[in-house]
Design goal:
The protein is α+β, with helices and mostly antiparallel strands. The chain has 21 helices and 26 strands. The longest helix has 33 residues.
């Protein structure tokens, strides 16, 4: 009996042990095989850290190395929810004012969220890493550290077994990562050329980091060159989340972005924007634009449109602050006369002294009556430029012919983008000859029936200031690394020679008369330099017809006329208190030109100085004669 009982007990024990070992075996298979990937990932999440390191975005500099845009070091404030325990309320209450976040939002973000993915695997969101706030200055980060160290968590913090937890909470639960913020030290200066940028959250291998992305202007056009290459680090940490450097697996340093050196001169840019602001106040146009170019190279020394914006303040950016120099088209009006007259001179169709009957201001052609702003009789080719006669330009266009007029307009760059390295440039409108009406040959020479950008028109004038050579506008001088080593150098680019050197000199002779007392822009005349240029006044087109009281006014000129150093374009959209280009834009040209000449130390014209001296002597002599 006893033996049978013992046997039964032994059998039960064997069954129990077999079941226990089977259960243990199943558990081992479950942990080591079935759930190996899931648990391995959770274990890695507890100790292994992968950091993506954003490169420093390159600076944008002016031609003399002055900083126009830079990246300032700031902090990205982050949290490790696993180290906060149940103390979210106290931490959120203390840090919300410093982080400038609503306390309730911060409270929610301090929790780790555990869920299962589509495969049923456990997924922990923000277990060790959650981003709280960006663009935090170093001084604010120091206040955050001081606040965390001074937090009082009540009696629980004095229990010996809790010492390590509260130590980690104060010193490691809230941490900072290096970050950068785009800064434009000069505010709105040259804003539309620089463009603007914004921080974008980028996710790589389940890790989120901030990256600055260019949104407009040079920031957008050179985004890849300015951005650099991201680095990363894979490492192990201890229970307090301190890195174990000896266990660091990978450490690839980021490659900083390149610096972009522009052709922009900050001083000339400031001169231009200051004078534009004065004219904006005086004539209250919808907008006013200005461009300053070095004709021989095509270098853009300054370019601006008002109203503009401050890239440091995104709320100031709107469609009204766009870069109208390249994004908007307009009928150029009389500035376009340089195309037809230079083309006709170049073809030998006309000469400077050839006379044209301007019909006393009324000329019927192809069923239309063309008008002049004044009743002119006989004018020479030069006089047509001096007086800006629409009828005279139309008659020259008729002599030149449709095909040749179109070819010269295309050769000057109209109807295609200039190639300036900025986003948003449009090509303008130059219809092929087959689409012209019967009157187009008479209208286009006076700047009607064609649409141009402000930059296109300025580059065409620069061609006449550069022996007839059209240049591609140059805005980027070079790309360099942080040590100043040149990585890529850019050079001026000739596009084509539009007219001969001889024709060019004849055109300059005619353009000089525009700023004379007999011309349309005496207000553009400079004191110590002979300037040359052309006025433009064009009615705006609205709903398919010309508006009676809305005009585009412009003046484009250069100096010194015999050896041009600077070309300046001024354009106003719907100016008040006068609308003729010579009246409202000519004086702005003069002010910008005089200040640029002084800054650049351009030698004065000897002939102009002699004329000024003679005028002074004459005035003094008259005064002496009047003295009793």
């Amino acid at each position: 009996m006893i033996n049978r009982l013992q046997l039964k007990r032994a059998l039960l024990l064997l069954i129990f042990l077999t079941g226990a070992f089977a259960g243990l075996g199943y558990r081992l298979v479950d942990l080591q095989v079935l759930r190996h990937d899931e648990l391995s990932r959770l274990a890695q999440d507890n100790t292994q850290r992968e950091y993506w390191q954003a490169p420093r975005r390159g600076d944008i500099l002016d031609t003399h190395g002055n900083i126009l845009a830079t990246s300032a070091p700031v902090k990205m404030i982050c949290a490790d929810p696993s180290l906060i325990g149940n103390e979210q309320t106290i931490v959120a209450h203390a840090l919300a004012p410093l982080l400038q976040l609503p306390e309730t939002d911060l409270y929610q973000r301090l929790f780790a969220h555990i869920s299962r993915d589509a495969k049923g695997l456990l997924v922990t969101n923000n277990l060790h890493y959650v981003r709280l706030q960006k663009n935090i200055p170093d001084e604010t980060w120091q206040k955050i550290q001081d606040t965390m160290n001074a937090l009082n968590f009540g009696p629980a913090q004095n229990i010996k077994t809790n010492f390590q937890f509260f130590h980690n909470l104060r010193t490691a639960a809230i941490f900072a990562e290096p970050d950068q913020m785009r800064v434009y030290p000069n505010g709105a200066l040259v804003a539309q050329v620089l463009g603007f940028s914004s921080a974008e959250d980028v996710v790589m291998d389940d890790h989120e980091f901030s990256k600055i992305i260019g949104r407009d202007g040079i920031e957008y056009a050179l985004n890849s060159q300015l951005s650099g290459v991201t680095g990363w680090r894979v490492t192990e940490t201890d229970r307090a989340q301190h890195e174990l450097v000896a266990l660091r697996d990978e450490d690839v340093h980021p490659r900083d972005g390149l610096n972009a050196v522009l052709t922009i001169d900050s001083v000339i840019q400031n001169i231009l924007e200051t004078e534009l602001a004065k004219a904006m106040k005086e004539h209250t146009p919808r907008s006013i634009s200005g461009i300053v170019i070095k004709p021989s190279t095509g270098e853009i020394l300054a370019m601006a449109t008002l109203p503009n914006y401050d890239p440091n303040q995104p709320n100031t950016i709107s469609p009204e602050t766009r870069d109208r120099c390249i994004t908007d088209v307009m009928e150029p009006g009389s500035t376009f006369k340089i195309v037809v007259v230079s083309g006709a001179l170049n073809e030998g169709v006309v000469h400077l002294n050839d006379p044209f009957d301007c019909e006393q201001g009324h000329f019927a052609y192809a069923g239309r009556v063309l008008h002049d702003h004044e009743p002119f009789g006989i004018l020479t080719t030069e006089g047509i430029i001096t007086k800006s006669s629409n009828i005279g330009a139309a008659k020259i266009g008729i002599k030149l012919g449709e095909d040749r007029l179109y070819d010269y307009a295309a050769d000057y760059g109209f109807g295609e983008r200039t190639g300036i390295p900025l986003p948003g440039e449009v090509s303008g409108i130059l219809h092929p000859v087959k689409d012209w009406s019967k009157v187009s040959i008479a209208q286009i020479p006076m700047g009607h029936g064609v649409a141009v950008t402000r930059l296109q028109m300025a580059m065409a004038m620069c061609a006449l200031a550069n022996d007839g050579w059209l240049m591609r506008p140059m805005l980027v001088k070079c790309l360099a690394d942080r040590d100043g080593n040149i990585v890529e150098q850019y050079a001026p680019q000739r596009v084509r020679q539009v007219v001969s050197d001889g024709t060019d000199k004849e055109m300059i002779q005619a353009l000089e008369t525009v700023v004379s007392p007999d011309g349309t822009a005496p207000g553009a005349a400079m004191k110590d330099y002979q300037a040359a240029g052309k006025t433009g006044t064009a009615q705006k087109v609205e709903n398919g017809t010309y508006a009676a009281d809305k005009f585009m006014a412009s003046f484009i000129g250069f100096f010194p006329a015999d050896k041009p150093q600077v070309c300046i374009s001024i354009v106003m959209d719907e100016p008040k208190e006068g609308y003729y280009g010579g009246k409202v834009c000519g004086p702005v040209f003069r002010e910008v030109a005089e200040r640029c000449a002084s800054y650049l130390n351009v030698p004065p014209d000897e002939n102009m100085q002699q004329q000024n001296s003679m005028q002074v002597v004459s005035r003094d002599g008259n005064k002496n004669l009047q003295t009793p």
